[in-house]
C-alpha cells in the first residue's frame, strides 16, 4: 500500500512524524517493509533520538556550521544563490542526509529502536509544505 | 524485476540517468518500489535538483573542499593513497552519500518531485564504467 | 523473511558482517531485495571496500576529525553532552551515514560489487551490543 504524508515546516529544524507512520502501519497489522521518500531536494529524512530535544538542536547547529549560508565568506565559491543564502546549503545538506529510509515491519509495528523517531529535517528558513511518499509491502 | 544500468563517467561530477529509470519502469505500468544500488565504493547515488546545472557544480565544489585530495596538507594522516590522491577521498564521499536509494512507484511512474533527478556522483578523476543494480517489486 | 543480527562492538570503528548476511540469504536461493536497518542512533551501516583495512581506519580518522568530541574547543556549542564527549558526535555521524541499506539479490546472492563489504560503523567508545533488523522479500 502507498500513501503521502504532508509536513508543514516553519524554518530550519527537525519535525517528528513517527506517530503518523505508526498509525498508518498499525491498520494493516502485517509484516513487510516500510519505505519513506521525501519528494524535495532541500530537506532530508532522519531517524534520530527522540528522548532529549537537545539532540535535535545540536544536529541543526552542527550542520549549519558545516554548511554555512552562501553569504558567508567561506562559501563565496557557490553559484546557485538566487533563491537566497539558505538555498544551496539546503541542497548540500540534502545530499549528505537521507532522501529515503527503509524500516522492516513486524505485525504492523516498525522495527524502530527504543529511542528512534522519524523526522523531516527542514533545511530552508521559510515555511514549506513537504510531501513524503510512503510505501509498505 | 531486476536490471543493471551502466554509466560511463569522465571524471568527477554528477551524471543524470533519470530517463533510463523512467523508461524501464514505464514498461511495467505497475505500482511498487524502485530500489537502486551502486556496486562500487568510490561513487554515490544522489537525488538532486535537475533544473539549474549550477547546483551540480556547487555540490561537487563543496564536497571537494570538505574532503580534499590526500596530497593536501590537511589530509596527511590518510594512509590508503596508493591509487592516487583522489582514491581515499572517493571512499569518504561514498560513505557520506547514498549507496542505495528507494522510490515508491505508482502506475509505472516514480514518485519523484518536480525538480528531482537521479544521478550517479562520480568521485574519481579517471573515467570509469559504473554499474547500478535496480530492483522493482 | 525477517531476522535480527547482533554485532558486539569494542569501541569506534568498522565491524564487517557480510558473511552473516550472505549465509542468511543463500538459504533461500531466491531473487528479491535485502534491506538492513540499524536500530540505534549512535552507529551507522556502511558498504565499503573490504580489500585494504587502511580504508577503514582512514574512514574512522576522517569522521573523527570532521566531528570532534564535544570537549574539543570547536564543539563548545553542543548541549547534549551528559553521556560523555563521544555522545553527540555519535548522533551527528549517525545522521551523516546510513541507518538503512538496500541491496538487490539474485538467486540468493546480494549484488555487491567485487570489493564491497557490509559494515556496522560504531561511533561510541564503550562496547555496545548493536542490533540490525534484516528484511528479504
From TrEMBL, chains A, B, C:
Organism superkingdom: Bacteria
Pfam families: YjbQ
InterPro entries found in the cross-reference section: UPF0047_YjbQ-like, YjbQ-like_sf
PANTHER family the record matches: UNCHARACTERIZED PROTEIN YJBQ-RELATED (PTHR30615), UPF0047 PROTEIN C4A8.02C (PTHR30615:SF8)
Family that this chain belongs to: Belongs to the UPF0047 family.
Name this polypeptide is given: Secondary thiamine-phosphate synthase enzyme
Amino acid at each position: 500500500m502507498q500513501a503521502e504524508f504532508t509536513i508543514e515546516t516553519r524554518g530550519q529544524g527537525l519535525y517528528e512524524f513517527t506517530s503518523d507512520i505508526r498509525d498508518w502501519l498499525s491498520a494493516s497489522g502485517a509484516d513487510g517493509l516500510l519505505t519513506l521518500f521525501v519528494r524535495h531536494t532541500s530537506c532530508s529524512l532522519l531517524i534520530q533520538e527522540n528522548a532529549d530535544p537537545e539532540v535535535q538542536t545540536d544536529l541543526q547547529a552542527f550542520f549549519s556550521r558545516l554548511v554555512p549560508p552562501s553569504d558567508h565568506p567561506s562559501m563565496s565559491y557557490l553559484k546557485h544563490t538566487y533563491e537566497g543564502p539558505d538555498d544551496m546549503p539546503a541542497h548540500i545538506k540534502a545530499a549528505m542526509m537521507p532522501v529515503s529510509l527503509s524500516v522492516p515491519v513486524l505485525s504492523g509495528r516498525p522495527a524502530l529502536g527504543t529511542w528512534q523517531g522519524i523526522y523531516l529535517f527542514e533545511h530552508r528558513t521559510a515555511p514549506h509544505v513537504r510531501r513524503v511518499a510512503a510505501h509498505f509491502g
